[in-house]
């Protein structure tokens, strides 16, 4: 029964908006906002101090939300509620949250799904922030308003203070992670920076990848070579690991290595440490 009343009230609200529609065929909310607040064929429903100035735009509740900008042709934008969100580009959507913004530009099709204080620059079309806090899709920390240059398809999947500044980059969670080259990826962790093309940081803390197509796991590693992989399993308090000196390397840095066949079979396992690694080196040299 409560559902019935809810939908009945919602239907009456929309119908009343139609009844009071002004001459440009816009639908106005129950707030009786001035005609300049709602663009042609746009809807502002419920909430407070919401504005939809573009054509075919929609604001559904909340407070101080904005959708579109009619005189610049930023139409078909949606703000789904929340507080002080602004969907400024055409075909852009902000589903909720607070203080989220998609910049006013000619680029299109970006989405922020919630969270707080997230932003997508107008020169990054078809980009997505799925939530989190203080995440940015922009040009090196600046909200770029370049109307000719375009960097398509950045994605930030939650987390905090993450940034994507190049096309097809991805940052998935974590804190203070940044991707700066094409198709680079930062999978979580803290304070990781990916500067190489199609390079990947997998978790960890304070890693820096400058080589293209390289991968890093662990902590405090620098990878300057291309097509290389570094795994640093040492304690975070130790010095930064910078071991690559050529392309195509695979390096694992750890205090010890255990090789084992099967589970709970000590007879089929052995451990290599700094005390006995020379035995392995000697055996490999003799085998060669």
TrEMBL record:
InterPro entries documented for this protein: Serralysin-like_metalloprot_C (IPR011049)
Classification via Gene3D superfamilies: Serralysin-like metalloprotease, C-terminal
Organism: Fragilariopsis cylindrus CCMP1102
Name of the protein this chain belongs to: Uncharacterized protein
Organism superkingdom: Eukaryota
């Amino acid at each position: 029964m409560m559902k019935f009343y809810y939908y009945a009230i919602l239907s009456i609200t929309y119908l009343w908006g139609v009844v009071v529609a002004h001459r440009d065929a816009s639908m106005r909310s129950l707030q009786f906002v001035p005609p300049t607040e709602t663009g042609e064929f746009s809807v502002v429903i419920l909430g407070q101090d919401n504005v939809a100035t573009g054509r075919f735009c929609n604001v559904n509740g909340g407070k101080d939300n904005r959708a579109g900008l009619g005189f610049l042709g930023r139409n078909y934008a949606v703000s789904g509620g929340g507080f002080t969100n602004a969907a400024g580009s055409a075909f852009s959507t902000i589903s909720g949250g607070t203080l989220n913004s998609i910049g006013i530009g000619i680029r299109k099709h970006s989405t922020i799904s919630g969270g707080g204080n997230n932003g997508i620059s107008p020169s990054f079309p078809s980009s997505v922030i799925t939530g989190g806090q203080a995440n940015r899709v922009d040009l090196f920390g600046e909200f770029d308003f370049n109307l000719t240059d375009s960097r398509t398809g950045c994605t930030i999947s939650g987390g905090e203070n993450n940034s994507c500044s190049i096309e097809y980059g991805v940052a998935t969670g974590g804190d203070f992670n940044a991707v700066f080259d094409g198709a680079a990826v930062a999978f979580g962790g803290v304070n990781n920076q990916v500067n190489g093309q199609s390079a990947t940081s997998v978790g960890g803390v304070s890693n820096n990848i400058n080589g293209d197509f390289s991968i890093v796991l662990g902590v405090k590693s620098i990878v300057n070579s291309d097509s290389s992989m570094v795994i640093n399993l040492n304690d975070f308090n130790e010095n930064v690991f910078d071991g690559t000196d050529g392309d195509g390397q695979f390096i694992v840095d750890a205090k010890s290595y255990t090789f084992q066949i099967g589970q709970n079979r000590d007879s089929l396992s052995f451990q290599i440490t700094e005390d006995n690694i020379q035995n392995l080196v000697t055996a490999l040299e003799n085998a060669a």
